[in-house]
Hints:
Chain A is α+β, with helices and mostly antiparallel strands. Chain A contains two helices and three strands. In chain A, 18% of the residues are buried.
Amino acid sequence: MAAFTAIVTVRLKSGVLDPEAATTQRALERLEFELDDLRFADRYEIDLDAADADAAADRAESMAERLLANPTIHDYDVEVEARS
Amino acid sequence: MTVAVVRFGGSNCDRDALRSLQDLGIDAEIVWYEDGLPADTTGIVLPGGFSYGDYLRAGAMAARTPIMQDVREAADDGTPVLGICNGAQICAEMGLVDGAFTVNESARFQCEPVHLRVETTDSPFTSSFEVGDVIELPIAHGEGRYEVQSGVYDDLIEEDKVLFRYCDADGEVSDEANPNGSKDNVAGVLGDCDNGAVLMPHPERATLPELGGTDGRAILEGLSG
């Protein structure tokens, strides 16, 4: 077994309205920043032990499928880093 | 013979639902989610509130509790199940109904009366209405915008699963009458079985003439079995 950190990033599918992001963008523009667009994402950093990086990624993907993401509105991706 | 009003940590419309059902002469009791459904359950209400503090997403945690598997089995067996507000979010999160309820277009919590047009009478909760009837109920939610993938939505329409749409006092379904940006003004939908239904507005808050009308009574009477 080895120690990993699985990073799960959950974001709204393209085309799904994100009112919080729109509000944040307007606030930045009121502060006179120039920007074209702004998107929110949730990032989960999950420390776990697994046989190898693939096994760690598989487990994190299951977590995303079963709880962290809602497939109706979300896409997600998983990255795995070795943890010392 | 009892309607189980399932209480989670953070439910806050459970007592209103109980009082409303009792006022209608329907035997009901509050059931703590860890205790499971009573053996004589003849109907189920998933009440409004903020189960698990709306952590992660509204309804996400409660949807994955063991009692919700019992709720699913009861729904499959024909028991009427009504998810109201947070209960609707829970049912969508567990896939008892299609789609998802997410952040209002306004990005604000909204608490106001709305008009709803009855879209189908093929459910125990709307069987006493006519299609096109307009009723008034309050909403109180921050995450009530109904989102659904387009193919799934086409199936909902095809199968007559839309229960209510937000409309104006004359029954006109319009963007102006859409309080939260829901897909095509959808305020409530039916599940795979017509005995399972969810809606974001609160019928239990519209059961007494002294408190804003009685249009919610006929919906709750769908639980009388």
